[in-house]
Structure formats: C-alpha cells, structure tokens
Specification:
Elements (H helix, E strand, L loop, with lengths): L1 E3 L5 E4 L2 E2 L5 H12 L5 E2 H9 L7 H16 L4 E4 L2 E4 L7 H12 L4 H12 L15 H25 L3 H14 L4 H13 L3 H19 L5 H11 L15 H5 L5 E8 L2 H8 L3 H17 L4 E6 L2 E6 L2 H17 L10 E8 L3 E3 L2 E3 L1 H12 L5 E4 H7 L6 E9 L8 E8 L17 E4 L2 E4 H8 L3 H20 L7 E6 L15 E6 L4 E7 L4 E6 L4 E5 L4 E6 L4 E7 L6 E5 L2 E5 L5 E6 L4 E7 L11 E6 L4 E5 L2 E6 L4 E7 L4 E7 L2 E6 L3 E6 L4 E2 L4 E2 L3 E8 L2 E8 L2 E7 L6 E6 L4 E9 L2 E8 L2 E10 L6 E7 L3 E7 L1
Parallel strand pairs: 10-13, 18-19, 18-46
Antiparallel strand pairs: 1-2, 2-3, 4-6, 5-6, 7-9, 7-10, 8-9, 11-12, 13-15, 14-15, 16-17, 19-20, 21-22, 22-23, 23-24, 25-26, 26-27, 27-28, 29-30, 30-31, 31-32, 33-34, 34-35, 35-36, 35-37, 38-39, 39-40, 40-41, 42-43, 43-44, 44-45
Helix pairs in contact: 1-3, 4-5, 5-6, 6-8, 7-8, 8-9, 8-10, 9-10, 13-14
C-alpha cells in the first residue's frame, strides 16, 4: 500500500487508487499520516478537524470516519490505541518518509549521486501538499512541507552547480527567485549561475534588486553570504569558476528545465484527409503548423519535435499550456480549411520533472505519459493529467476541468486520472477515451464483446454518436472503477421478469441489482464515487455519492444512470416523498430538494440552527405522512414540503444515530441505546424513549410493523415491533460473524445487507419473512454493502 501526501491525498493498493471519502474523512487520514505510527488523541483530532466549532456529534463523526476508512484500508491499518488512533505505515509506504530518507542520503553522496537522488526525491511531489484540504492543521503543515521541498530543490541545485550545469539552471532559478523573492540562497545560486554564464552584470543586478526588496519589505540588508558573493563577483574571484566538468550544451539550455509541462498534438483522421485532399493536404498541413506555432509560441511554448502532423511542445507553466490549448482549439474550429474539410486537433498535456535532456530534447516517463494522454483524446478535445490540473488550480477562471476518472495508458503500469478541459466555445460531448480501459473485454449477456468495437460501431452516425456519449459516462466508470479497491458498494433488490445475464461482475462503488426470486445479481451500475445512501420510488433509484457531492438517478428498467445531479455538498442521506427527492447536506448544514420531473435541484433549504456558533451537520432525512424530517445535530426538524420551511424543532435526549418515519411517527435511534418516538401530528416526543439492549439502527415501517437493527455485544438482531405499543413481535438473529448495515422493504419483502466482521471483501443480501422471521440468503456480493432498497 502506498500513502501519498506530497500533493493531493492519495492511497494506492495493488495498482488501484482507493476512494477515501468526504473532505473531513480525508482530513482525518491526512492528520494521522502526518503523525504516522504515533497515537493521536481523539480530542486532538476533533480540535484539528473542527477547531473551535466542533459539533456535539464530533466524537461520533470521528468514529464513523475511522470506520469508513477501515473498510477501505483494512482494520489493521488504522488501530485504536489510547488515547485515540494510530495509522500504521510500513517502511517505504509513505511518500513523505521516503522523501526525507532520500534527502538525508543525498547529504552523504558525491554531487553526481546527490543530484540524481534529489531528483528522485522531488519526483515524489505531485503538487501542493494536501492541496484539497482546508482543515486548520493543513495550512501550517502545508507550509512546513513546502519548506522541505524548497530546501531539497536548493540542495539539488547546489549539486548541479558543482557539476557545471549552470547554463541549464538559469531559467529554473529565474523562475524560483521570482516565486520566492526573499529566499536568499536561491538568489545567490542564480547570481553564481549567471556569473558562470559570463553574465556578470545580470548577476549583480539580481543582487541589487534583492537588496531593494529586502529594504522595502523588511528594512533589512542582505545576509553575510549574499554580500560575500557580491564582493567575489565584483573582484572576479577565481573561486567562483565552475569545476572542470563539461557544461550543458546550448540546445539543452534552450528548453525549459525543472518542472516542465509537456504538450502533444496531432490531427484526428489525417490519413482520411490525405486521401481526400491529395496535393492540397500540404497546404492544410502548412497552415495547421503556422496556426499552432503562433498560438503556443504566444504563451511561451517551445517546439521540441514534429513528426508529420504531430507536434511536441514544452511549457514552463502548466497554465500557459492549458490557455494556449484552448485558444488553439478555438482557432482551429474557426479556420477555413481547403475544400471546407473539418480539421480536428487532439491535445494531451502532462506536467512532470524529466530526468534529463538528450540531443533530441527530453526523455523519461513523463514525456511518454503526455504522449499517451494525447493519443487517448478525440479531435477537438483537450485532456490533461491530474498533475497539470492541480498546478493550474483556479488560475484560469474561464476554464474548468471535467473529471474523466482513472485510465490505463498503453504500456504504463500506473493508472492516470484524466481531466477534460472545459471552456466557452469548446465542445464537451466526446466518446469513450482511447485508452486501455476502452479495449477491456466485458461479459455482457453471456457473450464477450470488445468495448472498442462497440465504440467504433456507435460512432458511425451522429445519432449513434450522441447515444454513445450519453452511455459513455457509465461505461467509463465501469472501465475505471474496477481499478479502485473500495469497500463500499450498494445492493438494490429488484424483481424483474424477462431474460437476464447468467452472471454479472459486481464492482466497487456501484449499485448491484438483485433478483430475490432467482437468488442472483442481474445487473450492476457504477456511479463512480462513494455511495452512501439509496432510495427508490416507482420510477427511479436515487443514489447519493459522497465523494462527488452528487445524486444519481438510475432507470429501474434499463439499469442505466440517466442523470447525475451535482449539489457540490457533503451529501449523506437521501429520501423520496411529496413528489421530490430530499438530500441531507451533511457538514454543509443544508437540505436539498430535487425535482424528479426535471432531474434538477429545485431548492436549497437553509435550515438555520438553535446555536449559530456551533456546526450542526444534517446527516439524516426521512419523508413522513405530513412532513419531511431531518436531523440537524441533536435536533429533529419538521419541514413543511408546501413552504420548504422549518415548522418545529424537537431536541433529542441524546446524540442521534439514525432516522426513520412511518405509522404516523418519526423514529430516532440514539447513541445511548434508546429508541425515540416522535408523533408526526404534534411534533413532540411520545412517551419515554424505549431502552434497547444495544445500539439501534435503520428503523423502517412496513406492513404495519416497525423494524430495526439492534447490535448487542458481538451479535446483531433484526427486531419487529408493534409501532403503537412497541411490544416486540420478532427478534431474528443474524449469523454470528455478520455485521448488518441497513434494511429495506417493499412488495412484502424485508431485506437486509451485511458483511462478515473482520473481512470487508464480501457481503450478503438477506430476505426475511415478515410473518415467521425466517431469514434466507438471497445473494453474495464481493464488496461491502451499505444500503438497500426494494421496488417492484
């Protein structure tokens, strides 16, 4: 397993990127990794994740986050150790530790070895550390890590200076001094490199500009070392001369070094154009080259190579490459080409640190990766790697990035997360990417079909092309998510007539469709991110995706995602009622209302709160007979669906754990092992809460009975209660090694999903006879299920 914090937080296991969950959950893991193999107190975790605004449910939230992370990483990775938790990392598993070991080793090596070792250390960085986290601890930790990186860069530059690579270093040092103008060691290194290039006046000017800046900003003079260097340059001290090692060639010095953004481009269907235009193709090619050279050149792009209609450029800054690409695509689309032919250019971009220069330009895996990304694109499309996307960030306000998930690139072992550049005037609808995943053989209907062949057939007409694009989001997810080891999957029990495939592969992060009569999975629908909740009505299955902040609508007849609705929030629960879909906004403290007729967000409900100074997340929502109910912190809210206003707030006697509605009541299970009944009409607690022998969860009402899971010690039971008297009618025991997570009902069926305790690699869907309590296994799943719904 590989843990990476030198950039956006990532965990990779067996070549697959793991889904790490919500922002708070990722922040928890990041903080534990920053203190790897050391126990961190639970109170400190709460302070670091919420600062002074910790909700009453913070301790419970920490437990939930740890539980979810254990499902993904394994129980042995995050251990409970007084006074809190510890993440256990083996030697070489954490990129920060590996980086620090390499930097320490370089201090004992000769310049040649040290330069190579430090380049390997710096190659571990993928962007700003923990860039996506905004927890209070992230900012100082990020600054400390960035300081370590800069120190390693200075150490590597010093080794390169000792190897007489001053010509090559000047452009990189100029950029670094511009970015860090008060850093005196970098300024001194630039002065020395310029002096060795015969640019004594420029070297002295760098000193003078730094001296002015220090005086203006801090009222200080340069340090002793920088002043000594200035005097040595004025006196042309022989000690400043480069060691007797062959300097970098002029060609090597002319191209960007250090962190470089590589851009590859070519014309889609060039062979067809050659056949169609004949001799006129030369005119097209000449115009194409002139257009691209001008557009890329205006933004600092340097041509490295060309082969026919394929061009290779290098940029010093990722944002310049992306901006130039957008302008290029717009220029190509607006140009009149010979005979009015349609010219479409595909562009691929990746940022990295090449290991070195050769006579023909660059070499190394980063160059190959950029070329492969370009080859995966379609005409008119701009694809970038995650490294490039992270470096651009928010620097280009007119440009956004569409996440196309991870893909296998030809002959490259590690999958690459690819993004499509989206901007005004750029086309957005494209077929499946041309990657290894597109050629993956899938079993469909008992026969093997090549997705690449299906894609080519689907592209024969514009109508088919549009249809293929609508389905490609699902197919891309099928091809990519299989690479991710994530312990979250959903089971949906559906009864469906007609023919079904004899076997279906159930992927992580998906909705598995189960026929309880046939005891088999009949379909599997990937949603891409981490599903956390599921609801069903007669027309749709609704899935909340916590990773992406979306709700997906699945057609129960075709088993396809027909719409994904982005909420940009920390979604946690979903319910259907009053002609709408209701989504709990988690830490965003909101409730969202989706109109299923338009598949669009209808309204965002700002709920207010009893204590405006403390966060009160909205983790649960349910639809009753007369109102919608939501738990906000430790308060139950009654919401009028006609006005979308909170009409009553009911304080719970303890921290809520789960919520359900039915039989004229609202049911809340609490952390102190009680069941609270709230009368829907009066919106008040009815009687005293019922004591349970263990924690209660997933309360539902069906067939005139209240059902819920009760955990008692190491065992779990499914209880059936009379909703009026709360007299127990049935207690159905789960197998001793099971840990049930959710129950659902419909069509006279009560279903439950569970997994084997201590092994999260498979789970079960079980059916319970509501009269006799007889439990039978309906299906076995290869992943950990967390929610279930039943429809006709």
């Amino acid at each position: 397993m590989e843990f990476r914090i030198l950039g956006p937080l990532e965990v990779e296991a067996e070549g697959r990127m793991l889904k790490l969950g919500s922002t708070k959950q990722r922040a928890l893991l990041a903080f534990l990794l920053l203190h790897a193999n050391k126990a961190v107190a639970r109170d400190r975790l709460i302070d670091e994740l919420w600062s002074d605004d910790a909700p009453e449910t913070a301790a419970t939230a920490i437990q939930v986050y740890v539980s979810q992370l254990r499902k993904v990483l394994g129980r042995e990775v995050i251990a409970t150790q007084a006074p809190g938790y510890v993440v256990r990392v083996q030697d070489g598993e954490l990129d920060l530790e590996h980086f620090e070991q390499l930097v320490a080793r370089a201090r004992t090596e000769d310049p040649e070895e040290a330069a190579a070792t430090l380049r390997s250390a710096l190659a571990l960085w993928r962007g700003a550390p923990l860039a996506e986290l905004d927890a209070s601890f992230a900012r100082p930790e990020r600054a400390g890590l960035e300081e370590q990186r800069l120190a390693a860069i200075e150490q590597r530059i010093q080794a390169d200076l000792e190897l007489s690579r001053h010509v090559e270093l000047v452009p990189e040092l100029e950029r670094l001094v511009h970015e860090h103008p008060l850093r005196e060691r970098l300024r001194g290194q630039l002065m020395l490199a310029l002096y060795r290039c015969g640019r004594q006046a420029d070297a002295l000017d760098v000193y003078r500009s730094g001296r002015r800046l220090l005086d203006q900003e801090l009222g200080l003079e340069p340090g002793d070392e920088l002043r000594r260097l200035e005097r040595a340059i004025l006196e042309q001290d022989p000690a400043l001369e480069a060691p007797g090692i062959a300097p970098t060639t002029p060609h090597e010095a002319a191209v960007p070094t250090g962190t470089v953004t590589f851009l590859f481009t070519d014309i889609e269907g060039s062979t067809r154009l050659v056949q169609e235009l004949g001799d006129e193709y030369g005119e097209l090619l000449s115009r194409h080259h002139a257009l691209l050279l001008e557009a890329f050149g205006e933004h600092g792009g340097q041509e490295i190579d060309r082969q026919g209609d394929a061009l290779f450029f290098a940029f010093r800054r990722a944002r310049d490459a992306v901006r130039a690409s957008v302008e290029t695509q717009l220029a190509v689309a607006s140009t009149s080409w010979p005979r009015g032919v349609d010219v479409r250019v595909r562009i691929g971009i990746h940022t990295g640190e090449p290991p070195g220069l050769v006579e023909g330009g660059y070499h190394g895996l980063d160059v190959v990766r950029a070329a492969r990304i370009s080859g995966a694109a379609h005409g008119g499309q701009i694809l970038v790697s995650s490294a490039t996307r992270d470096l651009v960030g928010e620097a280009l306000p007119d440009v956004s990035f569409l996440d196309l998930e991870e893909h296998r690139l030809k002959e490259i072992a590690r999958p690459e997360r690819i993004f499509q550049v989206v901007g005004r005037g750029l086309p957005e609808g494209f077929p499946l990417l041309r990657t290894e995943d597109a050629a993956r053989v899938m079993t469909i209907g008992g026969r093997e079909e090549e997705l690449a062949v299906a894609a080519e057939a689907a592209l024969e007409t514009e109508e088919h092309r549009a249809r293929w694009f609508r389905r490609s989001r699902v197919l891309v997810a099928l091809g990519v998510v299989v690479l991710a080891i994530v312990a979250a999957a959903l089971a949906v029990a559906l009864t469906r007539g007609g023919s079904t495939p004899p076997s279906v592969t159930v992927l992580p992060n998906s909705v598995a469709v189960v026929d309880p009569a046939k005891h088999e999975v009949v379909a599997d629908v990937s949603i891409g991110g981490r599903p956390v909740a599921l609801a069903a009505d007669k027309d749709a299955i609704w899935v909340a995706d916590a990773d992406d902040g979306t709700v997906s609508r699945i057609d129960p007849k075709t088993y396809e995602v027909v719409k994904t609705i982005g909420l940009g929030a920390d979604v946690n629960d979903v319910a259907v009622g009053f002609g709408s879909v209701w989504v709990a906004g988690g830490n965003d403290e909101k409730l969202f209302r989706i109109d299923p007729r338009t598949n669009a967000l209808q309204r965002t409900l700002q709920l207010g709160k009893a204590d405006p100074l403390r966060p009160q997340p909205v983790f649960f929502v349910a639809a009753g007979r007369k109102a919608v109910w939501a738990l906000q912190g430790a308060t139950l809210l009654r919401i009028d669906p006609a006005t979308d206003t909170v009409t009553k707030r009911v304080a719970m006697p303890a921290i809520p754990v789960d919520l359900g509605a039915g039989a004229g009541n609202v049911w809340v299970t609490t952390q102190d092992q009680r069941l609270v009944r709230v009368d829907e009409s009066s919106a008040s607690i009815a009687g005293s809460p019922t004591e349970l022998p263990g924690q209660g969860a997933s309360p539902i009402v069906t067939g005139g009975a209240l059902w819920l899971i009760v955990y008692a010690g190491a065992s779990a039971q499914l209880w059936k209660l009379d909703p009026s008297t709360l007299v127990q009618q049935l207690a159905v025991s789960f197998p001793p090694t099971s840990f049930p997570f959710a129950i659902g009902s419909g069509s006279g069926i009560v279903s439950a999903v569970d997994n084997r305790e201590g092994n999260f690699h498979y789970g079960f869907v079980r059916e319970v006879d509501p009269t006799t309590g007889r439990m039978r296994k309906v299906a076995k799943l290869p992943h950990h299920p967390i929610s279930v719904a039943v429809t006709d």
